[in-house]
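Feature request, filed as a ticket because there's no other form

It would be nice if the structure record came with a short human-readable summary line next to the tokens. Right now we just get the raw output. Example of a typical job, pasted below so the devs can see what we mean:
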Amino acid sequence: MGGMAGTVRGATLLITGAASGMGRDYAARAVREGAAAVVLWDRDAAALSRTADELGRTAMGRTQVRSYVVDLSELGAIAKVAHAVRREVGSPDVIINNAGIVRGNAYFWKNDSGDDIRSTMLVNALAPMHVAREFLPAMIAARRPARIVNIGSAAGTLGNPRMAVYAASKAALAGWSDSLRLELRQAGHRHIRVTTVTPSYVATGMFRGARGPLLAPVLEPDVVVDRVWRAMLAGRPLVELPGSVRLSRVLRAVLPTTVFDRVVGDGFGIYRSMERFRGRG
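Raw output as currently delivered:
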């Protein structure tokens, strides 16, 4: 893999939420760079099949494209499908935990579905842990350059009205992701690099209706994919998009909470950004 200095040529990648959106874009980029194999996971069987066929035609036999239908809210299914991947393709060199869900725009106490809370935490927070756990032993033993990319959200670094459960799930993901990075370094497994990504709203349809706050316009997917891809290859630990996400985090740390709420949260429009959210549904 050339130390992953600038390409995934010859590597095996596993991408969750790969049937559409940025997951499909990551997979397409891997095919273009000549990856040995691209493994696509998604729960949408029809969309997954279309994406796999399209990528297979693009690859023209140079890259093995394999797809697996898996519902990441079923942790037992992750173990079962991971076993199939190890048997049929081999252990991945790169894992991109891209899949995620967001439900509704109601205040937390008006969310009348415990199932929404459970599924959001399972898909956004627990599933990436279980996916990584399935493949980490082989990645450690292989001693070749490897990457784990965890797609979080700026919501995981800053609370926001009307997305309490989503914010909680992404905060959990960020905490685990950075701790995993440090554990691998401390244990001497420096060939595995972990990248945590915390973008603001991205124009994929997942956050349709959400408004970009001041200094944080809604991001174009191709810009995010390119930034994440280059950070992944370089093994950088954190990607914050746009730069105002880091600014908000710094201001949150230094300003009194009431001042931050008034000046940044309300003044920049962050706390009103989900009022017109519709999502894919």
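Something like this underneath would help us a lot:
The CA atoms of residues 53 and 65 lie 9 Å apart.
The radius of gyration is 19 Å.
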